[in-house]
Amino acid sequence: MHRHPDKRRTKTPDPADRAELRKRYGMLCSAAGIAVNLLISAAKFFAGWISRSVAVTADAVNNLTDAGGAIVSLAGFKLADKKADAGHPFGHGRLEYIAGIGVSFFTLLTGAELLRTSAGKTIHPEKPEAGVAAAAIILFSIGVKCLMAVITKSAGKKIASPALEATARDSLADALSSTAVLLSLIFARLFPHAGFPFDGAAGILIALFILYNGFASLKETVNPLLGRPADPEFVKNIESIVLQHKPISGIHDLVIHDYGPGRVMLSLHAEVPEKSTLSAIHKVIDAAENDIMIRTGCAAVIHMDPIDLENQEFIRVRGTLSGILADMHSGLQFHDLQMVPEKNHINLVFDLVRMDGENRNGQPDDSGLRKNIDSAVKKKLGERFRCVIRIEAPFTAGGLPETDPASPDRRRKNPGQRAKGKHKTTAAVSSRPEVLPRQRRKPYPAPHFPALPLRLQARSVCTQSGNRQPEAQPQPEYRRRTGSRDRFPL
Q: What keywords were assigned to this record (predicted)?
């Protein structure tokens, strides 16, 4: 019996297991951050007291605020793990982002206070007493902070946590600031009569770096709340999963709603043959939604966009329009093309996506772009064609080039050439990113999704629930006896 070479990769982690892993990583790193920062802060306060150095004392305050930030982060992970309730049907996952904002504000406050104190010491310098004990304490804290930065950054990437990644950047900033403090003590010891305020100057440099790091962390944690384009690899993964379900020939308008790490919902439009029956396509769409949930843990809603794949005139017009947009500007994509006949002309109604966003680089505005496209279409197709264009903003970074009709890599290289007998509606699998293979020709296990309205699962649910019917029994009789019409509505 032939076995798949990557059989070990067919098992997909359960979304609940991923959520529990996130919680454990986050709470462990936050608890370790609290303990380590409190210990280092106490040691540096002692070093600042014996050395009379404002830079060392400010560094101690910095570590103390880091401990407070770790407490906020720990509370964020704990609250984000709360289940959805009546008032918050999408859960509490975004509290983790809010915790990351809290950590960033702690960093900004620390930098501002350190800048104020260091500026005062630069104007009115005091000679610090650089001793071996103070230098040893600071050197030890540098090593600990570097280790914390590496561990926290690794954990943050593993669970895709903005809060932990912000904490890692803050730990690295702490290590660099402590290095500057150590250098200021060394220079003050080597050049006691230089007359230069090494202590205050080091404090100012540290403060500026901390402020920069705080603004960078704030930006990274605010972006998910404001909404940002999805990761291109994730988009390609979703595209590959959906296109495995025939006869879906393309997708567009992929919108991803992020309600916190591990709580992602998405919606998209799937291009399907116009002559397919609604019942048959509904089965395919339900199976694709179920497949996305199993393999990514994301709830999906798919809208069906019918395409007339038998109309040679439509295929010719679409190919011509694709070439016009490709020659005009590489950042243009279109979808939802419809040919609407009028009395004396034909309207070409379609949606146009401008991938250049606000950075037009000398390109015309929306009104000018509509005129240019309309003129080019009339020149190529004739005066009887008129364009009705709705311009949209891109929802994903880089768009969906694999399924966009304007892409030169469209599955049918010659739009005017049709296959005989059946539609050629799928791309070569080898040209797409590798995803976890799904088990075909088998119904999805009902215990994972017992309430989904999928008629595909009716026989599987009956078998697993103990109400097994003979294999030769007609499907309508099965529905009548088991009462599955209420559970699996048509």
A: Membrane, Transmembrane, Transmembrane helix, Transport
